[in-house]
Amino acid sequence: MANDILPYDKTFLTRALQLAWKGRFTTMPNPNVGCVIVRNNKIVGEGYHVRAGEAHAEIHALRVAGNLSRGATAYVTLEPCSHYGRTPPCTTALINAGIKRVVVAMLDPHFYARGRGLHLLKKAGIEVQHSLMLSEAESINRGFIKRVRTGLPWITLKLAASLDGRTAMSSGESKWITSTQARQDVQHFRAESDVILSTASTVLADDPKLNVRWTCFSDEMKRIYMNNQVRQPLRVIIDSTNRVLPTHRITRYKGKILLVRLKKDHRNWPPSVEQLLLSSINYHGHRRINLMELMQYLAYREINNIWVEAGATFSGILLDIGLVDELILYQAIKFLGSDARPLCLLPNIKCLNDIKSFKLLNIKNVGPDIRLTLIPQSI
Asked: Residue 2's pLDDT is what?
């Protein structure tokens, strides 16, 4: 971390991080970025990146500050861009505005851009500090950062179960184990995601929409994310044996659908449905879609965050092959009994050395249920 960090730097950078978080529903595939312009220890301009192709956070903040930008300090959650893309470089805007000092939470994760923006600012005589509140800055862009650094999206697996780890009665009856509040909470996570990933088995069993429904948001969420702004994530369905049909509800609602298959069919699909052909692998004696190939393809399409809602078999496969970055588990305070269906299937666990271990990050009450946030952990 650079020297000369001032006592109030964290205060203003915290505000910039709060602003960046406001863009989490609409910036995809771009990162969430916030900016605060401060002069004489007072905020004179602030802004955040709202949507890809539109003005960046720095531009919004500079417009608000106007002439007060001259001699001021800019607090930015991500290194200002230094290249011409769909918008001009923010480094040029900061220099032309007469900014005296720039405090950046984290450097650009792209290897070709990392540090270049700060170099141009320093070259123009602007004082620069960076890597302040780094972990906080990375947490609001974890999907973007992972995709840039590894070529894979961030994958969150959502599960819901009773206290005895069951998801449905033996008959398949499962509506609803968890509460209305928990289902509202799921809508919030869907809205933050680029992709909702599921399987043909789930489509056949539940005939779900798997979309973002503004009417199901909490009142607080509705104030944050207006109905006319709602963006539908890409719905990706693993369908290796072509069981999903144009008659299923998922095809009749707004938003694009990607059917991942081993071979195409020639049914009369609406324009919103695309068929993607991938290779298969032998997974413990079964022919399965190559999920690593799928994740690489989705990253190529600039997908940052994937939200998975699927059954016990697919959830178990994702956990078994190590593709889950985060697990969100909703637990209803009730018992379904020993004949009910299990949370996920992990047939390859034969001894204690094979078990899947997790680190608990957070526990939250959601209505009458609880929500656990966990990450995989090596034993």
From this structure: 44
